[in-house]
Amino acid sequence: MTGGPIHPVILSGGAGTRLWPMSRALRPKQLLPLVSELSERSMLQETVARVSGPDFGPPVIICNDEHRFVIAEQMRELGIEPRAVVLEPAGRNTAPAAVVAALLLIRDDPDARLLVLPSDHVIEDVERFRAATALAAKAADDGALVTFGIPPTRPETGYGYIRRGEPYPGIDGCYRIDRFVEKPDPETARGYVDAGDYAWNSGMFLFGAGTLLDEAQRLKPDMVSCCRAAVANAREDLDFLRLGHEAFVAAESVSIDYAVMEHTRRGAIVPAEMGWSDVGSWSALWEIGDHDAQGNAVVGDVMTLDVRDSYIRADGNLVTAIGVEDLVIVAADDVILVASRDRAQDVKKMVEELEGRAVPNTTCIPACCAPGDRTSRWTAANASR
């Protein structure tokens, strides 16, 4: 790679409600070892580890206030000192976060290149990921805003798609972006897969800090102004950087895709098969998990008899299952989830239902508790509403 190290920007603000009951507000999925069972690394730690080395600078981690000490401890466990741990006073989606990171990095490195990554994705083939990053860096050096596309393996309706256009001049394997498309219905998704020139939108990006700021200023000047004020009014708090509250809260909540990538003429895509998953549901964990002879992915103390194609996870207590198939069974110490595997995305609806009402003698919900908290804390939290 040329132009100095690439600066990883790790976005760690999501709640991960589709992976309830393991993922809670105070301990969301990116801070849990949901995939790396043997090493017990969290998904955040795995993300940071894959962008560690001579080609990369220390990471900038953007998160909310409640997770700051957990994140600091997890970085200490890795032996990595972040360039900055930036605390958002409120979630404002990915575009303001990326702009803030660009503003911070460009102060010390006018040619800084940002590799913006969600903290909760799985990438099984790290070498291919790094090769795709090196390719994207070449396009970024040429002024492109690059996204990574995942060649679709099935007509997935839960992802957005990107259609690639003409080859990017002088960079084999990189293409101009023809268009973004929203999450399709099944028939449309099958058409995209058959066409061969569509990729899943991974939500990972690489671009120069100056290029991003120029395009964001042109397309979303008010948002950029709020981000500039939030950085100007930021203050250090121990090892953290607190953004200016009033200015950042005033920024529009919008994704990089909607704010910039869908409107810029500088967009490019690097399609790369790298064993990627956004781990957006329990069924996604079943797909990437190790399966037994009956197609089950099991974690923890689990016994099965005549069970097929199911994801079963036990956190502490023994879980037994007999004669079922295509289920998700997740047993935390205070909640048990049972769902059809093809309805795993609807876990978010259950969380929303629990957040909207107080149920006597039930367990805590993500809005108030971390895993292990019991009914007493749930009751206290709701009694104060």
Can you put this structure into words, describing what you see?
By secondary structure, the protein is an alpha/beta fold. The chain folds into two domains: 7-277, Spore Coat Polysaccharide Biosynthesis Protein SpsA, Chain A; 290-379, no CATH class. Helices cover 31% and strands 24% of the residues. The protein contains twelve helices and 19 strands. The strands form four sheets. A five-stranded mixed beta barrel has the order 6-9-7-8-12. It has a four-stranded mixed β-sheet with strand order 14-16-18-19, with helices on one face. A hairpin with a 4-residue loop joins strand 18 (327-331) and strand 19. Helix 3 (94-106) crosses helix 6 and helix 6 crosses helix 7 (221-232). It is globular and about 60 Å long. The N and C termini lie far apart (54 Å). The model is unreliable at 359-385 (pLDDT under 50).
Give structural attributes:
385 residues; alpha/beta; Spore Coat Polysaccharide Biosynthesis Protein SpsA, Chain A; 2 domains; five-stranded mixed beta barrel; four-stranded mixed sheet; 24% strand; globular; disordered C terminus
Write down the oligomeric state.
single chain
End-to-end distance = 54 Å
Read across the widest sheet, the strand sequence of neighbours is 6-9-7-8-12
CATH topology tier name of the largest domain: Spore Coat Polysaccharide Biosynthesis Protein SpsA, Chain A
Instruction: Provide the helix percentage.
Output: 25-40%
Identify the CATH class of the largest domain: Alpha Beta
Task: Write down the domain tally.
Answer: 2
Q: Averaged pLDDT, please? A: 89
| Relative strand content | 15-25%
Q: CATH H level of the largest domain: which superfamily?
A: Spore Coat Polysaccharide Biosynthesis Protein SpsA, Chain A
CATH architecture of the largest domain: Alpha-Beta Complex
E-strand count:
19
Quickly give the structural class.
alpha/beta
Based on CA atoms alone, the radius of gyration comes out at 21 Å
Number of helices: 12
Instruction: Write down the overall geometry.
Output: globular
**Major beta-sheet overview:** 5 strands, mixed, barrel
Task: Give the low-pLDDT segments.
Answer: 359-385
